[in-house]
Here is the input.
Amino acid sequence: MINLYEMRKEKEPEPKYIKLYFDHLQEFQNIQFNPVLKAILKRTTNASEGQVIYTNGKVKQEIAEECHVKLNWVQAEIGRFTKKRILIKLANATYLLNPYLFGNGLWNDVKNIRCDENYFSNSDEKTK
Here is the structure.
């Protein structure tokens, strides 16, 4: 007989993941899931740490090299993701990964970010 406890114990730990909330999937109808978005998602902090991405020059250069694109393409994509509200600009080179579209971490942490009105001062900024 197979011991399920032993099987679970031997399993590898779950890799890093980011959840995509399907109830807001229509926001992606004009956005392709491209390598730059994937690289940004990979660098986003956990929701318990604010679910932010820092895009200083060094980070943008790393993304460009990782995605085999030019730096100006990365900058243009960040602008496009901001316009589409995938990223919400918090400060210079600092963005919030929209918690109505993505969750990176525990639901309670994502929910707390969703409830913070400082991020969503204008009704058009929410993707509800």
